[in-house]
């Protein structure tokens, strides 16, 4: 039997957080500020917790400030001023400011202010002078248990799943629950009633300009001032946003990084209102304006989403064609794959640019047959057409011969020589290439050039100039950096590598591409790591990151992955990076390969061997299909490590295969970067080496890396180590670069005492030097 809802007090349940703050404010006679959307329970909290015989209640919507006159009381008297958000006129605000200031200064009055918005700007001077307890909108929301208690007092006994569904939609909002009970726990009718309530009792009370503003911006999930200006055609957007902030708590994000986002229920209400009050043509115009804004700002996926909303196929086709003219590093092929794959064949077959784009995209998606189908269609188009259309098709074919990911590097020397002649004779024009795919590598960038490394000096002399010419801006600094990377992988003279890398960076800085500069930065970072200076590598990458953030944000994901690799050597926590790493279980994006290889290493360190194994299998499939020799070697080595950790006998055979393949190219660093874990495996069994010098080079450098980074990829979860307060402080100062003498002076200890603490710390951590101690302490989160 359901109880009749007669009054608030009979059914009122005080939200735990709001009640706690209220009691705390009352106990210490602290001014109270409550805010939240309509129906959240602000006024109900006061009515059910304040002795109304000793309380004066005023609403700013009906009472002027000078009408509030409270006589001197001998006992504490509560004064409540509600609806502060309704004060729009500056003179009204000034009057209320003075009245509130007066009331705050009286010891016989406990002041409570209520509004729909967070603490307003015009009251901030008082907030700076007086301490307020603030009960925020979130504090009024019911927990799931509180919601169940509220509903059950009306005689409804619902299954837990239904309670959970109601809580997921309403989020514990009391008004939503009130309507839910009124509608006999029908969720669909509850949502409609809530929207109708907001429509009549909230939105209709707003200024018309504010109503129009929120309807217009509801077509986008979030907006900037510039986007809102373009949507509304108004120049006073910032003023309207400020007015909205003082009218209610409507924003989920309030200007963070220049971005605003409306709360989901409000946005949905505004979209409903928009559809009822504006014509289809007016709404289409809003979506077009939003799409145009995104297009101008190179936010292509967002622009396409807007154009798709009203089926603007002309704009969609135009955008996809423009994107197909870009290389995979600067374009949005993977993000836009749905739009490309939904294009009718008859539209694609009439555009050489779209045919080339589909061939490239299908190759990136590892659909080799489909990629070849569109390549053949483009060849046919070139045969059947003349003039500019034929030239466009032939230019695209030449581009694909070089750029298609699945074709590898075989035959590229002749293709580059031919392209060089065609370009110099002005018989061809090539679009910009993606040489690195935004990776810090040329040998393992857009394509795999391991085979070229076998003849690096000869090729640099023979075709270095033609290749650099064909690649245009990407050719700046290419030859010295390609040689530097080849030498780095082979473990050759470190000073020559430094020299070539710096030369390549200088050439790139003279009219080249920042993607190529990243290669030089990456080479120097790896040299620092190999030279036991992971901190130096981190500084190099962080410095470059600041530049890339401004000039080449497309590089940031791989810069962050590189930093994560360095942090693994340093023993730093990589949980933040892992939280935003690509999810291979949802989709495998070939452009994220460097990030996937980083993620595998974290899986290994965390002991998540099954996850590591599954991701490695995806990487191996990709590497084999797309002729990625280096990645195949690297993934095979990581597979051997996983098998070794899982006590699978196959690890020996897997590792032997990796060693033999790496030795074929004399690649040292693909092995030695794994340091201690590889050293342990090599010491467990005998392996076949063809070249004794190569074997010694690998073993020597593995030992050096093991000593420098003794806990790289080591399993987590070992015994906890307790260090004294002084020992931890000394370690922190060492990590900042301070010497023992300076630390002793800073801590007012003798240098001998500092050194004693250091020796004890090294012993407890199981390390032999300061660098290793700092890395291990960071890994264990001791500093």
UniProtKB/TrEMBL annotation:
Residues 716-781 form the HTH luxR-type domain. Keywords: DNA-binding, Transcription, Transcription regulation. It holds the Pfam family GerE. The keyword Transcription applies. GO terms for biological process: regulation of DNA-templated transcription. One of its GO terms (molecular function) is DNA binding. Gene3D superfamilies: P-loop containing nucleotide triphosphate hydrolases, Tetratricopeptide repeat domain, Winged helix-like DNA-binding domain superfamily/Winged helix DNA-binding domain. CDD domains: LuxR_C_like. PANTHER family: DNA-BINDING TRANSCRIPTIONAL ACTIVATOR DEVR_DOSR (PTHR44688). This is Helix-turn-helix transcriptional regulator.
């Amino acid at each position: 039997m359901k109880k009749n809802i007669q009054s608030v007090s009979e059914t009122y349940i005080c939200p735990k957080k709001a009640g706690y703050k209220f009691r705390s404010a009352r106990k210490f006679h602290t001014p109270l500020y409550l805010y939240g959307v309509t129906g959240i329970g602000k006024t109900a909290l006061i009515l059910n917790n304040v002795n109304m015989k000793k309380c004066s209640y005023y609403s700013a919507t009906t009472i002027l400030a000078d009408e509030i006159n409270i006589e001197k009381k001998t006992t504490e008297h509560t004064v409540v001023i509600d609806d502060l958000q309704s004060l729009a006129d500056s003179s009204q605000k000034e009057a209320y400011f003075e009245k509130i200031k007066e009331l705050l200064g009286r010891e016989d009055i406990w002041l409570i202010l209520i509004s729909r918005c967070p603490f307003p700007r015009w009251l901030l001077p008082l907030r700076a002078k007086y301490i307020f307890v603030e009960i925020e909108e979130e504090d009024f929301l019911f927990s799931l248990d509180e919601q169940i208690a509220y509903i059950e007092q009306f005689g409804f006994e619902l299954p837990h799943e239904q309670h959970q569904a109601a809580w997921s939609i309403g989020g514990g909002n009391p008004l939503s629950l009130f309507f839910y009970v009124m509608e006999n726990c029908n969720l669909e009718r509850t949502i409609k009633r809530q929207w109708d309530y907001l429509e009549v009792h909230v939105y209709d009370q707003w200024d018309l300009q504010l109503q129009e503003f929120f309807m217009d911006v509801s077509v986008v999930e979030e907006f900037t001032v510039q986007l809102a200006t373009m949507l509304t055609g108004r120049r006073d957007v910032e003023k309207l946003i400020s007015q909205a902030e003082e009218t209610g708590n409507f924003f989920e994000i309030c200007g963070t990084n220049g971005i605003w986002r409306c709360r989901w229920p409000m946005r949905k209400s505004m979209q409903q209102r928009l559809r009822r009050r504006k014509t289809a043509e007016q709404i289409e115009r809003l979506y077009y304006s939003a799409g145009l804004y995104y297009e101008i700002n190179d936010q292509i996926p967002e622009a396409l989403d807007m154009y798709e909303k009203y089926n603007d196929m002309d704009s969609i086709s135009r955008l996809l064609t423009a994107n197909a003219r870009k290389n995979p590093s600067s374009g949005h092929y993977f993000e836009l794959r749905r739009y490309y794959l939904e294009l009718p064949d008859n539209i694609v077959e009439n555009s050489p640019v779209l045919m080339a784009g589909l061939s490239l995209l299908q190759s990136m998606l590892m659909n080799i047959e489909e990629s070849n189908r569109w390549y053949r269609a483009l060849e046919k188009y070139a045969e059947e057409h003349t003039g500019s259309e034929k030239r466009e098709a032939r230019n695209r074919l030449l581009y694909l011969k070089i750029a298609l990911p699945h074709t590898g590097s075989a035959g590229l020397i002749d293709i580059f020589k031919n392209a060089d002649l065609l370009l110099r004779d002005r018989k061809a024009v090539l679009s910009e290439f993606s040489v690195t795919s935004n990776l810090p590598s040329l040998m393992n960038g857009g394509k795999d050039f391991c085979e070229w490394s076998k003849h690096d000096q000869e090729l640099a002399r023979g075709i270095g100039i033609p290749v650099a010419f064909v690649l245009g801006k990407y050719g700046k600094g290419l030859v010295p950096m390609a040689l530097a990377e080849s030498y780095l992988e082979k473990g050759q003279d470190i000073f020559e590598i430094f020299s070539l890398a710096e030369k390549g960076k200088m050439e790139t800085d003279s009219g080249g591409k920042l993607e190529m500069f990243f290669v030089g930065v990456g080479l120097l970072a790896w040299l620092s790591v190999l030279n036991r200076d992971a901190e130096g590598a981190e500084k190099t990458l962080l410095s470059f990151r600041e530049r890339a953030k401004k000039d080449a944000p497309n590089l940031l994901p791989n810069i962050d992955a590189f930093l994560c690799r360095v942090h693994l050597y340093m023993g730093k926590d990589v949980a933040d990076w892992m939280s935003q790493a690509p999810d291979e279980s949802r989709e495998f994006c070939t452009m994220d390969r460097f990030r996937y290889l980083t993620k595998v290493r974290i899986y290994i360190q965390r002991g998540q061997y099954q996850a590591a194994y599954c991701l490695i299998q995806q990487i191996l499939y990709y590497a084999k299909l797309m002729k990625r020799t280096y990645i195949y070697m690297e993934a095979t080595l990581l597979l051997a490590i996983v098998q070794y950790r899982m006590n699978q006998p196959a690890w020996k055979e897997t590792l032997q295969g990796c060693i033999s393949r790496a030795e074929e190219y004399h690649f040292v660093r693909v092995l030695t970067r794994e340091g201690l874990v590889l050293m342990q495996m090599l010491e467990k069994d005998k392996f076949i080496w063809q070249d004794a010098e190569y074997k010694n080079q690998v073993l020597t450098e593995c030992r050096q890396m093991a000593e420098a980074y003794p806990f790289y990829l080591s399993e987590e979860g070992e015994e906890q180590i307790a260090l004294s307060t002084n020992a931890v402080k000394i370690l922190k100062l060492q990590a900042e670069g301070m010497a023992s003498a300076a630390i002793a002076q800073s801590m007012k200890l003798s240098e001998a005492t500092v050194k004693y603490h250091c020796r004890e710390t090294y012993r407890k951590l199981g390390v032999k030097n300061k660098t290793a101690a700092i890395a291990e302490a960071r890994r264990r989160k001791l500093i």
